[in-house]
Records
---
Amino acid sequence: MSDKKEGLLETVKTVVYALLIAGVFRTLFFQPFWIPSSSMKDTLLVGDFLFVNKMAYGYSKYSCPFGICPIDGRILSSDPERGDVVVFRHPTQGRDFIKRLIGLPGDKVQVQNGVVFINGEEAVQVPDGLFVETYEKQGPQGGYPACANAPVAEGGECIKEKFLETLPGGVTHSVLNIRDTSVDNTGVYTVPEGQYFFMGDNRDNSADSRIERPIGVGFVPAEYLLGRADRIVFSSAGRSLLYFWTWRADRFFKAIE
């Protein structure tokens, strides 16, 4: 074999090995995730880039790309905790979602006047000022943010009320309020065994477990959990992660609360 052919073969082998290593790393340890929507503001902004800790809850068939892992149920599993920010596979849409875990198996969850109650205990909300952003297209999808002070002209200030919510168990995080919606007052959701109840922190702009599938998320079985989001790596305010001049310097390696 000529030196040229040997060199080409070695290059191909190197690329194949690199792809295999990357595939194993993504399957077992950390999966990259880019925030495409506003449902988790202001905890997560459109354009935040993070790695999902796939070791946190163990593994199911959905831990592999395209759901091809030959796993029945979950292995090496650990239970998620209330307040975790979790990436999961939508049970019917086949897309990955990111929301906050509110209800554990057996919990009774209800929303009254925009306030969450879990097993009858109020998740107390304390006013925390305003969340202000520019009314402009965001991310590659080019969507505009929803504003409590609508209508807002292009380039104007888009304002939402902000609260600090403390869940039973002590996790405190930020939530936003835009307006009164149909899911600000709900019936009681009883979370089935082996399933979980999720909500977005941007409460009035989130399709989550308050809404049944296929439009919403409904209850999410444990096998669809992919991992926990712990830290933002970097964040881009532009239409692409490659537009480094739009990166948000204050969000580099920011912990997710």
---
Amino acid sequence: MDDCNTEKLNCPIFYTLSVISGKWKWAILFFISKEEVIRYGKIKEYLPPIAHKTLSQQLKELEADGIIHREQYNVMPPKVEYTLTEKGKSLVPMLDFMFQWGEKWSD
């Protein structure tokens, strides 16, 4: 924790936040981790208030950061599946902790 240079934002916490910041990213990661392989429509079912544009953008960002893998199958209708990468799987202990914390402290 002493390896942070806040003047230059050269701190591991800033990197972590840059990758997983966003209102929905933690929830998206949670559902992908629970399902292991999940399609776009199922994520949308789990998060009904999320806008299509927002979900698409958050998934693209997670893929670009190497947290999730997107597999597209060239069939009709188009089929796309999402899974966690090894980098994404390393976030599962934090997801589990967040779930437990929420269970304990939510009303």
---
Amino acid sequence: MVNHVGSLKEWCTLMETSKEKLVVVDFTATWCGPCKQIAPIFAKMAEEYPDAEFVRVEVEDADDVAEACGIQAMLTFQFFKDGNKVDELLGAHPNKLGISSNT
């Protein structure tokens, strides 16, 4: 299941979650074509990796979160562990979007 983060308060709670498990964040926008194309792949990954937390941040609704995370392009994925960003992927690259045991 993909959850949604819409505020800095929810973001702070999510970073607490990242102390327990990997958090994968999809920074998306409703106007972004590639974002729409990869959304079902992201949702499928959430089902395939139940030990990770998958969330979506709509950048226009949560611009404060996007700004805090330094989002400058659609589509951006960020990976968090222990409250820290451990990886980032820019663009809709389904073959690159994966979770390794190192992350």
